[in-house]
Amino acid sequence: MLQYVIWEVNPEIFHIGSFSVRWYGLLFALGFLIGMQIMSYIFKKEEKPVADTDTLLIYMVVSTIVGARLGHFLFYEPEVLLHHPLTVITPPFAGLASHGATIGILTGLWLYSRRKESRLTNQTFLWVTDRIVIVVALAGACIRFGNLMNSEIVGRPTDVPWAFVFMNNNEYAKIPRHPAQLYESLSCLVLFFILLWFWNRVKERTPRGSMLGIFLIWIFGLRFFYEYLKENQVPFEDSLPLNVGQILSIPAVLMGVYFLVRSYRTPVPLPTSEESKPVES
After folding, report:
1. Angle CA(12)–CA(33)–CA(38) in degrees, nearest 5?
2. 69 is in an annotated binding site
3. How many CA atoms lie within 13 A of 106 on its CB side?
4. pTM for the complete prediction?
5. How far apart are alpha carbons 81 and 166 in whole angstroms?
């Protein structure tokens, strides 16, 4: 029987001089690139301008990175944000918070939908978010797997047979621990397939906000419980009854419940004859 996994994968794929390509960066980029191919397919199936996915990609990249960086410093290192605000936009870009990324993405999609919410394309905020959460779930799986390749965001000590020993993590090495990154990565991957299946069944008849609600409840509901298996990220969390990740997950889950309930109380608007015509990409 497997006792534990010795994890000593090199986080760097290769380097040329001082420039290095790491698994985390590759997986982060793949999440966006594959995700936008899926969004192009969704736009084509629902007769939206496929060319709009290029603009959507820009909004997603900027809002994700800015939101995740600001969220990390605001939630975990506010003193750095206060005294050294330029750290947010300067290398090495260490520290990304998923709760901050969520806020950033929702803000970016709201700005995007304001430009696209016309009778011709009808890309409302909830229409866009219901589709984008499909690819965000896939990106989340890639990013959390990248955390595993980096041997970071590790779990607490455990004796389960699938425990990992993170040999490249000097702080937590040589003790079998929960592979919390893998738990979250697999959870995101399962959610990706659930949301893709759900959309494929109903497409334009998707209740507005339903998939966003499912996403928020699934991701942050599980995140709340996974935090019990993870080491705290910063020392001040040790004195809290709930850590920062759990505290921030509660309003996210409640917001998900709101959107899910609202989606089934609000009829899906039927397309007008003008909206139902194919749009040239």
Report:
1. 140
2. no
3. 14
4. 0.88
5. 30
CB atoms within 10 A of CB 49: 18
pLDDT single digits (tens) 225-276: 999 999 998 888 888 999 999 999 999 999 999 999 999 888 776 555 444 4
- Rg of the chain (C-alpha set): 20
Identify the top-confidence range among 14-18, 52-56, 77-81, 97-101: 52-56
Evaluated on CA atoms 76, 59, 226, 264, the torsion sign reads positive
The conformation of residue 279, written as its DSSP 8-state character, comes to P
**What whole-number distance in Å separates Cα of residue 154 and Cα of residue 166?**
8
- Stretch 169-182: mean pLDDT, rounded? 90
The beta strands (E) that lie in the chain are given as 5-7, 12-16, 19-22, 164-166
Cβ partners under 8 Å of residue 217, min gap 6: 253, 256, 257, 260
Total residue length of the chain: 281
CB 195 within 8 A of CB 137: yes
Burial of 66 (0-12, 13-18, 19+ CB in 10 A): middle
- Residue 279 confidence (pLDDT): 47
Looking at residues 166-174, what average pLDDT do you find?
A: 87
Taken in order 220, 247, 158, 139, the sign of the CA dihedral is positive
Phi/psi at 177 (5° precision): -135, 160
Task: Quickly count: other Cβ atoms within 10 Å of residue 249's Cβ.
Answer: 24
Q: Are 140 and 64 in contact (CB under 8 A)?
A: no
Neighbours of 176 (CB within 10 A): 20
Query: What pLDDT, in 10s, does the model give residues 33-42?
Result: 999 999 999 9
